[in-house]
């Protein structure tokens, strides 16, 4: 009998992994980030938004002027002393624009967060339960969607006054409907997938399947929808402020600043150009971020 050692020689430990192809393990967040940063427009939008946030937080602290402090220099143009000029009351427009960005971004992000939470829960439950429950819940959505969202905002502002709270509440009354419909369609599709059926056969509760499996796998389109909803909320607030239904003085958002400068547009155009330019810059940055997240979270569908 021939011994095995005559035909096969044992190799050393250093040679055992010569044919092994090493692949670094990546988390979901890291994988999304690597795809996101390959999109130059999305990365530029993120940098621009980060710079705006830093200036908004640090600018009023470092500036010698206050938000509502009036001065003797009235309706001055752009200069080294007043970067954006001053308004009819001698207030520094640069500081007021920074405070306006704070208010506009607060309204945009808070209303979007509330709408996302409400829409995800409502649409997820409707899609998972199905049947009569789904039909009843979606008919309620159809009735609410038939009423224009602007009507909700006007009604609440008449009741609670022109303030940040009433504007955000009005935007949240029907703002979650689109998210609920999107989440419902995602859950209806995902609950028939193999991983959801496997969890059900193993005895997982409906709550665990919904929150642990379905919500997690449906977050991609929801996150993209959230990034696109923020500029919509900012634009809605700016539109309401521009037509005179926004935040009451002395507070001022970007839309309120543009509305106040409307009568001086032909004489002092800087008073309107500066807040409108900031609105456009923020909306462009958020739209680019949303586009990048769409491609990063759904690389196959975006091609």
> What would you say the CATH architecture is?
Orthogonal Bundle
- The topology string of helices and strands comes to HHHHHHHHHHHH
Spans of at least 5 consecutive residues whose pLDDT stays below 50 are none
Helix content: 55-70%
The strand count comes to 0
Structural class: mainly alpha
User: Number of DSSP helices?
Assistant: 12
Distance between termini? 62 Å
CATH third-level topology: MetI-like fold
Write down the domain tally.
1
- Tell me the fraction of residues in β-strands, as a range: under 5%
What composes the largest sheet? Answer: none
Q: How would you characterize this protein structure?
A:
This protein is mainly α and 303 residues long. It has one domain (29-65, 83-297): MetI-like (MetI-like fold, Orthogonal Bundle), CATH 1.10.3720. Helices cover 66% and strands 0% of the residues. The chain is flat, with a radius of gyration of 27 Å.
Outline of the structure:
With 303 residues, the chain is mainly alpha-helical.
SSE inventory with pairings:
Layout: H1 28-36, H2 40-62, H3 93-129, H4 131-146, H5 149-160, H6 164-174, H7 177-190, H8 194-201, H9 206-217, H10 219-242, H11 254-260, H12 270-297
Please tag this protein with its features:
single chain; flat; 66% helix; 303 residues; 12 helices
């Amino acid at each position: 009998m021939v011994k095995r050692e005559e035909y096969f020689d044992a190799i050393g430990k250093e040679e055992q992994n010569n044919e092994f192809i090493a692949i670094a393990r990546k988390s979901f967040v890291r994988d999304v980030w690597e795809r996101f940063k390959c999109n130059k427009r999305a990365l530029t939008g993120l940098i621009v938004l980060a710079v705006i946030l830093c200036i908004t937080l640090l600018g009023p602290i470092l500036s010698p002027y206050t938000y509502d402090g009036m001065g003797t220099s009235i309706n001055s143009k752009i200069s080294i002393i007043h970067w954006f000029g001053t308004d009819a009351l001698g207030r520094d427009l640069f500081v007021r624009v920074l405070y306006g960005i704070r208010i506009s971004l607060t309204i945009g992000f808070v209303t979007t967060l509330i709408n996302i939470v409400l829409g995800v829960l409502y649409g997820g439950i409707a899609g998972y339960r199905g049947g009569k429950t789904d039909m009843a819940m979606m008919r309620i959505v159809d009735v609410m969607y038939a009423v224009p969202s602007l009507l909700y905002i006007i009604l609440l502002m008449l009741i609670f006054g022109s303030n940040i709270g009433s504007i955000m509440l009005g935007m949240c009354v029907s703002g979650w409907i689109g998210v609920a419909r999107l989440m419902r369609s995602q859950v209806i599709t995902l609950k028939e997938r193999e991983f959801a059926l496997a969890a059900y056969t193993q005895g997982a509760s409906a709550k665990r399947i919904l929150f642990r499996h379905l919500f997690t796998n449906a977050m991609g389109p929801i996150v993209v929808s959230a990034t696109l909803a923020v500029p919509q909320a900012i634009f809605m607030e700016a539109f309401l402020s521009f037509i005179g239904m926004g935040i009451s003085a002395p507070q001022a958002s970007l839309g309120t600043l543009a509305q106040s400068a409307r009568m001086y547009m032909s004489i002092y155009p800087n008073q309107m150009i500066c807040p409108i330019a900031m609105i456009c810059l923020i909306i462009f940055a958020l739209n680019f971020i949303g586009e990048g997240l769409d491609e990063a979270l759904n690389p196959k569908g975006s091609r």
